[in-house]
Amino acid sequence: MSKKVRKMTAEWLDIPADVLTDVPRIVMLGNRQLQIENYLSVESFCDQELVLKLGKGKLHIRGDQLWIRKIYTEEVVIDGKIGAITFLE
Hints:
Elements: H1 3-12, H2 17-20, E1 25-29, E2 33-37, E3 39-46, E4 49-54, E5 58-71, E6 75-88
């Protein structure tokens, strides 16, 4: 199914875009935890920086004492002091 058809289907059925498309869903709990769905891979990681590859571009997370609490095929949970989140194309 093409991206255009998925987007139109999501709009027509009033389904959130992240359900039918490959856009990331990001939930931030204060500045202490991030839950990210629909990522492709972890490109780099250390306690001050994490880079995730997305369907389109990358997600760059900076902070202190970062660590991966959970990692699954399509979801990752990051704990620590989140300082900045940047989308890179």
